């Protein structure tokens, strides 16, 4: 009894450091998936259906786990099921890029040895679907305190579906997918509504914030700071968040940011974004950074035109006339020594 008491006193006095709490470790999870029909057989576009099955296994107790099934463009869910009971009903989110995310939220593994849970989805393949369809999955945990994702396990081998087409039908009805274009008037676009990037984001500070101009000058230090930088007294809109992350994020485009629609908080993210469902957030993709948009258009127009034409015309014509004509009358006149009067040059 005496030894623990002495140890406690040493900790209080600061002589012996107190033990540091160990951070929560991620559980051991495995994800396996398969698709039917097989890639060799394929599925008929517009008429056929496919089935995807993903099995999630754990070797320990896990609380409040989430699973996401991401369907590519050209596939839409028909129905889903889970095992074991009770049945879980998913949340389906349609992304702006045409993909579809199916979420199963908040389930547990209560046994000491873990267990497994099976997710099944029946899919409809569109008439103009691409030839190869890749279905991915992700199991993740979210920290409810600060909304950070601290554990994520992707599906190691995605489920692949091959698409078959009826003869001459695809060529007659399906137009080729246009290449993506950049609109300078829309430098950032909505990437996921009611979702946020899984990757850790940096919260924009609200007190003592420093904004860096394109010349590296801190906000408010000199009068030469750009006017658009002075307007960011606070970050109140996604447009303010876009400008702040462009000037302070240090990421090359494209990059992403999360906007909390409830608390008006701005989170600057990196070049990758894995969407997870969160009704309080919207995720945005930055295509053209705030410092790069004004310098792209005026450069080629103003520098090429004024340098070529003004130099050719004035140098050629004025120099030829005054040099040749004044040289002839400079010959000295002849004098007649007898008369002491000058005579013309031709009489000498």
UniProtKB/TrEMBL annotation:
Q: Where is this region: Disordered?
A: 298-320
Cleavable signal peptide: 1-23
Keywords, ordered alphabetically: Signal
Q: Which domain of life is it from?
A: Eukaryota
Protein name listed in UniProt? Uncharacterized protein
Question: Taxonomic classification, please?
Answer: Eukaryota, Sar, Stramenopiles, Ochrophyta, Eustigmatophyceae
